[in-house]
Amino acid sequence: MSKKKQPHRKTSPARKKGASSRRAAPRKAPPRLSDRLAATQRMLQALTQAHAEFIVWGEHRALLQRLLALALELTQSDLGFIGEMVSLSEGEPFLRPHAIFPLDWTEALRGYTVSTRPASGGQRSATTLFDAVLGADEPLWLKTPTRILVEGSPAASLPDLSHFLVLPFAVADKPVGRVVLTNRPGGYDSDLIEFLQPLLTTCGTLLHAWRNDEHHRRAEQTLQAQQQQMKKLALVAARTHNAVIITDAAGVIEWVNEGFTRITGYTAEESLHRRPGELLYGPNTDPAVTSAIHQAILSGEGSTAEMINYRKNGEPYWNHADIQPVRDEHGRLVQFVSIENDVTARRSLEQQVAQSAERLQLALESTEDGLWDLDLLTGKLTVSPRWLGLLGYEEGVGETNYRHWREKICHPDDLPEAERRMNQHLLGHSPMYEFEHRLQHRAGAGMWVLSRGKVVSRSEEGRPLRVVGTNSNITSRKQAQERIQAFIRAIPDAIYRMKTDGTFVDYKPSVNTKDLSVLPPAEFLGRKIYDLPELEILFQPTRNAIQQLLQGSPLEIYEYAVETPNGVVHYESRLVYSGGDEVMSIVRNITERKLAEEHQRRQAERLAEQVSHVTRELEARQAQLIQSEKLASLGQMAASIAHELNNPVGYVSSNVSTLATYASLSRRLLEISLQVEKALGAQPPAPVAALLEEAITLREQEHLDEHLADLDEVLADTREGLARIREFVLNLKTFVREESDVPQLADVNKGLRMTLRMLRHEFRERCEVICDFAPLPLLRCFPTQLNQVFMNLLLNAAQAIEQRGQIYVTAQQEETDVVVRIRDTGRGMDARTRARIFTPFFTTKPAGQGTGLGLTICDTIIRRHQGRIEVQSEPGQGTTFTVRLPLFDDEDEDEGPLH
């Protein structure tokens, strides 16, 4: 608990006198809270590390020796030891030392007699110091013991002892050992005993765990020796402490020892011919562990595992199982031997140690600041978990050095000032080292910390030996300050701060280089706005705005214009009350906004002129949508019709094939019948003659020869009809199929032919269709939409022919366009009709026979393809529609007009 570190070494007779004189010095003042916190921090760090190292390595003596040295340092004691209470069945109890400083002085305890009284009070008694240590059931601190002779040796040969402290420690109410400290200047008190309580808990935990480990280690060594000397059943003694299970190669129990019965409660009779898992596994048994054991047994390999098993009475326990295969002289697997041990106590102790370490870790993390401890002699820098966590490293008490901090952690720009301030404090020129600076975060970014430190230990010559301090993360505060500054800098407008009487206090210029201040800042800062003739235009608006703010208005805005050599500049001034007798004014150049408002006004007028046009466009789009919905419904209906037609067409086609087979067989039978007639001759036998005559009569009366000859022609016509039905269904499905939003490469000639086949019934009675299709490149388009255009134009052409006429359809490439022409010999159109044919809802058909949307939709589809549709017509001369569709290069595929 002292802030001055004392190195430990053996006390020579020459130094004992000096030590005695030092103890005679006046008692020091109570340590400060920061020193107590630092000492507690060191103690908790050491205990946490001791727990962790014992769990890893299992070695306790070095850890106890280190903890004793730390306790002597923190309490400023010269002598001490940590001993284990050992009680044998025969003889007196004794102390077995596990940590001692200096060495070999515990026997000297028998050379002292003391008058003792427990810390809780009670009668005093005289006894030897050794007996007092053994009999102390509660903390006991004593003043100077009285020397007596030890085996004839003079009392002068005994070491000097003063202010003797005995601290017993136990585990589960069972005494385990003693911690003894002596020769502390000023003696010992209850605060110090409370400070050392975590040390006592850790010593008890370590010694108790060591005892258990020693016990289990000796048992395991004994078992291993037995396993090496015996085979099969002789491998282990029948009454070993461990449970032994022998199974066959499939894992079925053949034998268990008494240890198995003692641990699990199952007798040998209850266990035979069953698997261990049937007896011992339960709800909390780890399936992964049992699966690994099962896999090892299946593969004939050994395995080791720890898991929760269950006794016969349902009580869970931790079981350590070592399962090894047994093979015969030929290497064949014959058995498994499992040696199992109840390790519940060890597991419980490990859990207690882990919980203790967790509590200590929580105590270390309870402070938000990072702690650091710099040894100025060695340069060693000890840091807390929080210190590491601030810099992005894995939290845990760690050590580094000053050189690493200087070269890798401290920001190079801040290092000179940090070292200057530290040197000022080390020289005594400042009461504390304090500096805001940056550290290098592990992720590469810098972080701001407020570092405070103070010298806590100096040499006798006054030289500083140790500095302890804290690091507070102030990155958020620094970032907030930087954000505020950046926010102010990012405001493009000019900002003025003025008093309520109009005096300018501060000024930030506008980032707009065109906003030149009427006056330089030096000429208006510190002066009232009302005293500057150059700003006369602002006198009254500013006075009115300030008056309104003082009366409670949250914001006042006014605009003004300034004549400049480059024209009139418009400004907007926003004033807010900022507290006290000050207001803030943000002045913005709104010239562009004013120009934009004028531009918007003119734009509004132009937009108003386009409203009617847009309305017409919307109506056309709506009509197209209606038609698209109709086509979608038609597509669904056509798909259903096609499906319904395909089924009967399929079995009709199958039946026709069957009829053809039957006809072939009938024809063959008739031929054989004729051959039979010829073979029988003119005078067949009487019974046969009657039947033969009947067959000849039937063949002649029913004209069977003619029927069989006509049957082939009938079947051929039927097959042709079925083929035409299939073709129609296929064309119908293709024509009305749902189309994606992505254009495709399509053959325009193929689309025209398919559309003509679909309309064949429309042309049969009205006209003759004459086609001339030149070879065309593939066109990137929406094929279904183009088919819709061709169908509308062909239907219009057919309906325009009043008596039988002709329709000419041509397709060819002209430069970079695909051109389709559809010409009819119908009645034609006059100029007035031609001018309105693409207008929505215009039609020349009788009411109820047309919607007036067909050609409108055609025009919309062709314009979507970046093409155009033209019409030539005269009354009585027929009509020609020309569709021009542009070809696009492949490199324009992703960014072409159709997208």
From TrEMBL:
<dbReference type="InterPro" id="IPR036097">
    <property type="entry name" value="HisK_dim/P_sf"/>
</dbReference>
<dbReference type="Pfam" id="PF08447">
    <property type="entry name" value="PAS_3"/>
</dbReference>
<dbReference type="InterPro" id="IPR004358">
    <property type="entry name" value="Sig_transdc_His_kin-like_C"/>
</dbReference>
<dbReference type="InterPro" id="IPR003661">
    <property type="entry name" value="HisK_dim/P_dom"/>
</dbReference>
<dbReference type="Pfam" id="PF02518">
    <property type="entry name" value="HATPase_c"/>
</dbReference>
<dbReference type="InterPro" id="IPR000700">
    <property type="entry name" value="PAS-assoc_C"/>
</dbReference>
<feature type="domain" description="PAS">
    <location>
        <begin position="229"/>
        <end position="300"/>
    </location>
</feature>
<dbReference type="InterPro" id="IPR003018">
    <property type="entry name" value="GAF"/>
</dbReference>
<feature type="domain" description="PAC">
    <location>
        <begin position="303"/>
        <end position="355"/>
    </location>
</feature>
<feature type="domain" description="PAC">
    <location>
        <begin position="433"/>
        <end position="486"/>
    </location>
</feature>
<dbReference type="InterPro" id="IPR001610">
    <property type="entry name" value="PAC"/>
</dbReference>
<feature type="compositionally biased region" description="Basic residues">
    <location>
        <begin position="1"/>
        <end position="30"/>
    </location>
</feature>
<dbReference type="Pfam" id="PF13426">
    <property type="entry name" value="PAS_9"/>
</dbReference>
<dbReference type="InterPro" id="IPR035965">
    <property type="entry name" value="PAS-like_dom_sf"/>
</dbReference>
<dbReference type="InterPro" id="IPR005467">
    <property type="entry name" value="His_kinase_dom"/>
</dbReference>
<dbReference type="InterPro" id="IPR000014">
    <property type="entry name" value="PAS"/>
</dbReference>
<dbReference type="InterPro" id="IPR013655">
    <property type="entry name" value="PAS_fold_3"/>
</dbReference>
<dbReference type="Pfam" id="PF13185">
    <property type="entry name" value="GAF_2"/>
</dbReference>
<dbReference type="InterPro" id="IPR003594">
    <property type="entry name" value="HATPase_dom"/>
</dbReference>
<feature type="domain" description="Histidine kinase">
    <location>
        <begin position="640"/>
        <end position="889"/>
    </location>
</feature>
<protein>
    <recommendedName>
        <fullName>histidine kinase</fullName>
        <ecNumber>2.7.13.3</ecNumber>
    </recommendedName>
</protein>
<dbReference type="InterPro" id="IPR036890">
    <property type="entry name" value="HATPase_C_sf"/>
</dbReference>
<feature type="region of interest" description="Disordered">
    <location>
        <begin position="1"/>
        <end position="33"/>
    </location>
</feature>
<keyword id="KW-0597">Phosphoprotein</keyword>
